[in-house]
């Protein structure tokens, strides 16, 4: 008799997700080196519009280092998790977290990325964090590289465009695997690895202006290949060093629909989905899919591989697939549709059936169910939703309360669709809501784009007490976890 699945499995991993460069601060303390994120300036919305360009230039970096530019760099300060991690983890424990996704800032362990010896103060900081999590029986889910390439690897080698960076990354991974093997079971190799094609600097510490003879796509896909090889090698290492280790890849899932049922629109959407899923194809299947041969040829892209690369990819695929999901995207070959705001995908148009967030991202809970089904069918591997959330403006009332029904509605609808996918047979490991505590936005470096269940008193200019307080969504998510998603 076939067993009917009615909800999330008993050991479902509920929690939240952050990145070191968006929360830690302490960018120049205890031996930490600069990372690429430390050079990303804050640009007010009136100057940038809704579409964001996240790359910086070589000259800009050198001018900043020479003191010729006095821009604000909010990711250097974060929300001071570095000094407040015990307070924050206690709040995560009160929420009932089973898992907390965080990243290690590579430049805190190897300040220049390729140092002869690791920085003990950095290693000790993360050990302290993991011990604090263990105190509350919260599993860490650790991202090795979350938009935090050591800046010196960018300046000396042009980041992941250089094959030499593979060895530096493998050594870094081996160092942290060895140090934290008793604390961390779940690892992710690269955050949203496909973002390297949208912003080579963000995703790979690559400065495209240093390679004027090459297209951005040529640069990005070459850098991505180096990351694929590095990911496979550290997956092998994790399994050797850490008993029972589980290593996943991480994709920014951009579920794409055709605006009309015109065959050209359908083909365009299919191509966009394939280009997105190409990254998980390599990680999970261990090989480049054949459709990329034509894409590379038609776009003048040549990915240079060394002998043995294909064998490495094939031998060491990831154990599970994780991804972020915030919105879906609609595309068309026809020009009469209104463009939608979004900071990653050019050419996306508005879906008339969907509402949008304050930042123009179209809200599509059922798209998450579609994405989960597609992953399950394509790979047959365990899945993990490691980012999902609503960036919105929050208002603090006179009594200090923060009412955020819009956030509760967004998350409720997405969790409902996850449950439907599980009923359909999707093997879902867990769910970590993005930004359980307000943090500095990755794309815009704002504080006003808030995701958290926990409010942080800091504004876009860096002013505020940094005090933490609970929003209405705090109690709601606490109940969701307590009932394993039964009470939404």
UniProtKB/TrEMBL annotation:
InterPro entries: GH, GH_1_N_CS, Glyco_hydro_1, Glyco_hydro_1_AS
PROSITE patterns with a match to the protein in the record: GLYCOSYL_HYDROL_F1_1, GLYCOSYL_HYDROL_F1_2
Keyword entries, A-Z: Glycosidase, Hydrolase
GO biological process: carbohydrate catabolic process
Family per similarity comment: Belongs to the glycosyl hydrolase 1 family.
Pfam families documented for this protein: Glyco_hydro_1
Name of the protein: 6-phospho-beta-glucosidase
One MF annotation (Gene Ontology) recorded for this entry: beta-glucosidase activity
Residues of the active site: 387
GO cellular component: cytosol
